[in-house]
Design brief:
- The structure is a single chain.
- The protein is an alpha+beta fold.
- The chain has a single domain, classed as Nuclear Transport Factor 2, Chain: A.
- The chain is built from six helices and six strands, in the order αααααβββββαβ.
- Strands 1, 2, 3, 4, 5 and 6 form a six-stranded antiparallel sheet that branches.
- β4 and β5 form a beta hairpin.
- The chain is globular.
- It starts with a helix and ends with a strand.
- The N terminus is likely disordered.
Length: 174
């Protein structure tokens, strides 16, 4: 009987619909606009509500308080880091499916930054993949280039337990 359910479940696997793909493009544009405006509270709010609830319950803060903290932390980071360019490549998106058939996507992401450490400036490129997670009818964007982030995602979404994500890399440019 279980084998029959497994066989049927595999038949439910599907690529994202055209409507879902268009929704992802709109989500990416919204993210890029918010990031370009340094609105990290909005960027943080584009994370899955399940992840936000996890952060809220583990810190004892409301999501609104967390968004304000994220903005304050980003404002502090910008004292030492300036973003020269940011690119989330919607044309290079790779659509995949979880074991339960739910589509997700990986978006190549590149951030060119200038790091300022005690007056010494270093230009670097951060290359990573951004996870686009379809939860219900909405796409949510999450970084997956650090082990701590992956641990939280896999705790909330155990379907990702066996999914391997490409490691991010930091490259000195000059």
């Amino acid at each position: 009987m279980l084998a029959a359910f497994a066989a049927v479940g595999a038949g439910w696997a599907r690529p994202p619909t055209d409507v879902e793909k268009q929704a992802l493009l709109a989500t990416v544009e919204e993210f890029k606009t918010a990031f370009g405006a340094n609105d990290m509270g909005h960027v943080f709010g584009m994370t899955s509500p399940k992840i936000l609830d996890y952060f809220s319950s583990s810190t004892g803060l409301t999501v609104d308080q967390l968004q304000k903290q994220m903005q304050a932390a980003w404002d502090d980071v910008q004292k030492r880091v300036s973003v020269e360019s940011f690119r989330m490549d919607a044309d290079g998106v790779q659509y995949r499916e979880m074991e339960n058939g739910t589509p997700y996507a990986l978006l190549p992401t590149e951030t060119i930054m200038i790091l300022d450490k005690d007056g010494h400036k270093q230009r670097v490129a951060a290359h990573s993949q951004t996870l686009a997670l379809l939860d219900g009818s909405r796409w949510y964007l999450m970084r997956v280039d650090e082990p701590k982030q992956l641990t939280i995602i896999r705790k909330i979404y155990p379907e990702f337990e066996k999914v391997e994500f490409p490691a991010g890399k930091l490259e000195a440019l000059d």
